[in-house]
Structures are given as C-alpha cells and as structure tokens.
Prior knowledge:
It is a single chain. By secondary structure, the chain is of the alpha+beta class. Helices cover 49% and strands 13% of the residues. Helix 5 crosses helix 8 (154-164), helix 10 (197-212) crosses helix 12 and helix 11 crosses helix 12.
Amino acid sequence: MERRTTERLLRARAQAIGGGVREDSVAEVLGRVLAVQAQDLPAAELGLRARARGLTQEAVRRATDTERTAVRGWFMRGTLQLVPAADARWLLALFGPVYLALAGRRLRELGLDDSLCARSERLIADAIGTEGPLTRAQLTDRLTTLGVEPKGQSAFHLIRRAALAGRICHGPQRDGEATFVLLDDWLPATSPLPYTGEAAVRELARRYRAAHGPCDALDFVHWSGLKTTTGRNAWAAVRDTAPEAPPAPGEPDVRLLPAYDNYLVGYRSRDLSVPAEHERRVWPGGGQIRATVVVDGLAVGTWSGGRRGTPVKVEPFPGTEPPSPAVAAGIARESADIARFSS
Length: 343
C-alpha cells in the first residue's frame, strides 16, 4: 500500500496536480505536461487552471488566440488536445498520417469518396484563405455547395481531415465558438521539424515519461494511441528519468479537475487514481468522464457547476468519510478559484 501511495503522489506531482506543484503560466503548464485534453475547450481551460497559480481565463485565451503559443488540434489518440505551438507541427507529422488512414473507412461509410475529400480540402482552404477564420457551421455551409449534407457527421469529418492533413488548425474563438485558420498562416513553418520518424516517437515517449511517471510502456501506448510495437520500441530507447524521493508528508493537496482530465485518461489502468468501487461515478458510460475532486492524486468525489457564475457543487463518493477540515478547506479554496477564473 505504501508503494502505491508513493507512486500516486509522484504521478500527481508530475502532472502538477499534487505535491504543492503549480506552474505560473499556460506555457509552463504545457511545457510540463505537453498536452491537455481539449475536446471540451472550457474543461481544457479548467485543466490548465488546476495546474497553475492565479491563472486567468483571459491569459488562456491570449495564449491560444493572440500570442499563438498554444494550439488545439487532433494529436494523441486522434482526440483534441491543447499543445505548445512549438510542438504542434512535429506532433501533427507524427499523428496526422496515422489518423488520416484510420479515418478513411469512416469517410467511405459516409459516402465521401477520395475525389470529394480532395475537393472539400481545397474548398475549405480557399474559403478560409479568402474570408479569414471560419467556424465549423460556416465551413459546413460552404461544403454544402459540393453536395455535402448539412446535418450529420460528414462535414465534421471533412473538416477534421483537412486539419489532419496539415491544411488548417484551430484558431481564435469567436463568441465562444472555435474557428479554423490556415495552419501555414497561423503557425508559419520557420525551420525543419525538430523530430521526425522514430526520433519523434522517442521524444514523445520521453515527454510522456516526464509528465506521467511512474508509468510504463503500455501506459504510453494507451495514452498516445500508437501501435504497441512502435510504443514499446520507443520506450525501450528512452532513458529512464532519475527517480524522485518520496514526497514528504504535508497538508493534503486538493484539486478540482475538470471532465476528461489528463490525469484520468493518461494511464491504461484507473485503479491508482480512482477507487474501483467508485469507478462508475467518474466513468458513467457513454464516453463521459466526470469532473473529479482529487486529494493527493486520489479521487474522493465528483463536482459540477462553476460556469457562468453557477456555484461549484461537490458530491463525495457515497459511503466515504466526511472530508477532514484540511480537505474541506482545500475544496473551498479550489471552488473559489474556479469562480474567480470563470468570472
């Protein structure tokens, strides 16, 4: 039990959600963890908040929309992530071809043949090049001129395909909605890629190990979505980092993690972060992953609210002891910080 507790504390510290670790900016958070899960952008912003001190929503939007130091795209596992802009191109070169190939079958199921896909890619790029940043709804409207159905998933998959092909990427938000821009305009390529091929996979393994350790090759495969052999080979080629000393006992470190947080999806097994008897409270099914209250890396409940002025509501796991005064104080601080961040 002591070994597992130490492992959990080290993971929480690596992820900047425990051990008192907090970074000072969006760039520092992403520099530490590489990627923040971002299919739900407000949740991704709260994931950055949980790993930082005093971060504002304005600072997050400035990093993504103005400074362009963070960019949202389909990378590991083919899901949306926020990553450092400096890493976006080599990550896209690594994952784009993988998920373009996997997307082919779904495109064919939707009746989207190679010719239509190529014409759609050109139309999307031309429309953005002429009109500037466009939302998914606006791009869908443009795609109907090629006979693409305005409803359903066809337009989404064509837009995603153009992003995986390196033609477009997520740009600034407009009235709370994501827009798409031309990748070469938004993030100009100024030099050769720093990592390609096997070197890119090894660098990814190194970054994962630093941000998630203690972990193993199969955790890396699970998190990245790469083939098992590819992941194992890269893992074996990367030197292990020096083991940290066990964290010293101290006040409990309480964090309110958002839905779909990295800490909950970054490992092949959930039993270290969430007690098995409460797993369904966090993963109720249907692809949902609920926002959680974690204490020193261990989930003790779920929470909701915190957006648009709604109060944070915490629900401890049933049958558990009431929170200690120190944990209750930590929950209150985190709830107040979410209100500050979201105001």
